[in-house]
Amino acid sequence: TNLLLNLGGNMRGAGQGAPGRAWRVGVRHPFQREQLVGVITLPDGYAVATSGHYEKFVSIDGQPYAHIRDPRTGMPVQGMAGVTVLSPRAVMADALSTALFVAGMNQAETILERVPDAEALLIPDREPVEIHLTAGLVRHFKPLLAYEDAVRMMPRE
């Protein structure tokens, strides 16, 4: 009745992580491997999925290239460092995290308008780190103290 299934960037929780406490999942800092930017509390039965450029990439002539490709160009995606999606549907969280990573900040809101039960956290590929949240994710995401000022709200129709 209580479980947290981890499929390497995709997680699904059911029940509780401890008596009276929901499962909590850390969101990794995309530029500092050993650090988190915050924690997401998973509602019972929800899934969280992350797509990022910091796990799988290749460096060519000192330039890093993400493993996620833009299907329109065939080129590695640039502009996003990480996208995390919270949804009651695990398949939707996984697909949407990749789609938003490819779409980038400019198109993310338009895509999210079509998926009312999904919430997202987007981190553009620039420093200092910025954490962009949909309004519904605010009640589930707690930034670490050092990143409270980095949080930005994404407008949503």
How would you summarize the topology of this molecule?
Elements: E1 3-6, E2 10-14, E3 24-28, E4 36-41, E5 47-52, E6 57-60, E7 63-66, E8 80-87, H1 90-103, H2 105-113, E9 119-124, E10 131-134, E11 141-143, E12 151-154
Parallel strand pairs: 10-12
Antiparallel strand pairs: 1-2, 2-5, 3-4, 4-11, 5-8, 6-7, 8-9, 9-10
Helix content: 10-25%
Order of helices and strands: EEEEEEEEHHEEEE
Indicate the low-confidence ranges by residue numbers: none
Mean pLDDT: 90
Order of strands across the biggest sheet?
1-2-5-8-9-10-12
Helix/strand class: mainly beta
The description of the largest β-sheet is:
7 strands, mixed
Q: Distance between termini? A: 36 Å
Query: Per DSSP, what share of the residues sits in E-state strands of 2 or more residues?
Result: 35-45%
Strand runs, count: 12
Q: Quick one: overall form?
A: globular
Q: Helical element count?
A: 2
Radius of gyration: 15 Å
Write up what this structure looks like:
The protein has 157 residues and is mainly beta. It has 2 helices and 12 strands; from the N terminus they run ββββββββααββββ. A hairpin with a 2-residue loop joins strand 6 and strand 7. It starts with a strand and ends with a strand.
